[in-house]
């Protein structure tokens, strides 16, 4: 009877040489689909401009990619691999618009990334990045996801990302937001969830934010100027030790939060007016009493001035010679 495929006899009945041959053939069969799939992905990228190398356990950029012209790549997905650096080959894709590096082991971002002057979307989430370099802020980014890293702060040059619409820096170790975030005039969505923020910058009130998530921080108060964020539709404040507004107000949602901020602002303005008005009253009404008293006081002042003028006119100092005579 004919047999199909590898020899089905037990290994103990096979010759040592044939055992080694069968094991080698099995290993090569397991490697072939991976290599064939990688080559197919590179070939498709040449034709479509979309490079998908996600979930391939890559520790470095494929060396065989040098055999393909990938300079026209506009979308590169290198997520779910084992990369420790952003491959230098990727920084040569000058037409690249979208770069996905989610779930790798990347620690630093090279300065060479500045060559990607067409890049509008960058996903760096779930890596081990400690610092966002200033050169990153020179890119025309509209979407930047740096969540689930080890960031301790944002660079001051973050304000240069004037086209940025979506910024996600949640699940990091950030303690403060620089006032330069107020220059992100296109920003619509901002997430700083799960950080170590104690205060919120007033500059955020100047942005056209639609969504703001500051949940799971250490914020105790919301600036009163946030009530002016008229475009804001979603405001997440839960899991903060809030005192103003109190937690029972925050639970009710954005409308009640803004109402509380507006009432507190009115109260502060009234307190300021009450301290300012007595001073103004004293300056604008120097004398009190009836109109007759005021008129009499004015007449006395006039008489005093006339008397002083006459005394000055009558006083003639004597010369030393006259005093001697």
UniProtKB/TrEMBL annotation:
User: GO terms for CC?
Assistant: cytoplasm
- UniProt KW keywords: Leucine-rich repeat, Repeat
Q: Name one Pfam family in it.
A: LRR_8
Q: Which Gene3D superfamilies match?
A: Ribonuclease Inhibitor
Q: Which domain of life is it from?
A: Eukaryota
Q: Where does the record place Polar residues bias?
A: 305-325
Q: Does the keyword Transmembrane helix apply?
A: no
What InterPro entries does its record include? Leu-rich_rpt, Leu-rich_rpt_typical-subtyp, LRR_dom_sf, LRR_domain-containing
Disordered: annotated segments: 283-325
List, alphabetically, the PANTHER family matched: LEUCINE RICH REPEATS AND CALPONIN HOMOLOGY DOMAIN CONTAINING 1 (PTHR48051:SF38), PTHR48051
Can you say what this protein is called?
Leucine-rich repeats and calponin homology (CH) domain containing 1
């Amino acid at each position: 009877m004919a047999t199909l495929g590898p020899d089905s006899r037990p290994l103990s009945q096979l010759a040592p040489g044939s055992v080694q041959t069968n094991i080698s053939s099995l290993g090569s069969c397991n490697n072939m689909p991976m290599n064939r799939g990688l080559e197919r992905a590179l070939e498709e990228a040449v034709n479509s401009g979309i490079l998908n190398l996600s979930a391939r356990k890559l520790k470095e950029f494929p060396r065989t990619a040098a055999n393909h012209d990938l300079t026209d790549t506009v979308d590169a997905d290198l997520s779910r691999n084992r990369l420790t650096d952003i491959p230098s080959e990727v920084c040569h894709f000058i037409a690249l618009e979208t770069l996905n590096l989610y779930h790798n082991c990347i620690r630093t971002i090279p300065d060479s990334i500045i060559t990607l002057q067409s890049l509008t979307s960058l996903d760096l989430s779930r890596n081990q990045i400690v610092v966002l370099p200033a050169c990153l802020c020179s890119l025309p980014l509209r979407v930047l996801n740096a969540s689930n890293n080890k960031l301790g702060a944002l660079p001051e040059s973050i304000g240069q990302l004037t086209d940025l619409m979506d910024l996600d820096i949640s699940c990091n170790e950030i303690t403060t937001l620089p006032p330069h975030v107020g220059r992100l005039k296109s920003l619509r969505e901002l997430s700083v969830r799960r950080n170590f923020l104690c205060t919120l910058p007033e500059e955020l009130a100047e942005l056209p934010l639609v969504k703001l998530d500051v949940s799971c921080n250490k914020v105790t108060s919301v600036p009163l100027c946030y009530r002016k964020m008229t475009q804001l539709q979603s405001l997440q404040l839960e899991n903060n030790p809030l005192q103003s507004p109190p937690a029972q107000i925050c639970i009710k949602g954005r409308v009640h939060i803004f109402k509380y901020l507006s009432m507190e602002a009115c109260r502060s303005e009234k307190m300021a007016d009450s301290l300012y008005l007595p001073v103004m009253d004293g300056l604008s009404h120097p004398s009190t009493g009836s109109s007759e008293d005021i008129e009499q006081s004015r007449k006395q002042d006039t008489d005093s001035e006339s008397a002083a003028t006459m005394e000055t006119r009558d006083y003639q100092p004597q010369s030393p010679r006259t005093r001697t005579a």
